[in-house]
Amino acid sequence: DKRLSSCLSFVHCFKKVEWGKKMTSRGQLKAALHYTVSCMCQRVAEQHQREFNRQLVAAITETAYRQCDIFAKDLEAFARHGKRSTVSTEDVKLLARRSTALVSFVHIQNKLEVLTQEQKDKKKSAGKKKSKDTEDSTQ
Amino acid sequence: MFLFQETVGKLLSSFFKEDKTKLGGDAVLLMAEMLKVFVQEAAMRTLKQAESEDCDQVDIEHFEKILPQLLLDF
Question: Which domain holds residue A131?
Answer without folding.
Answer: 99-139
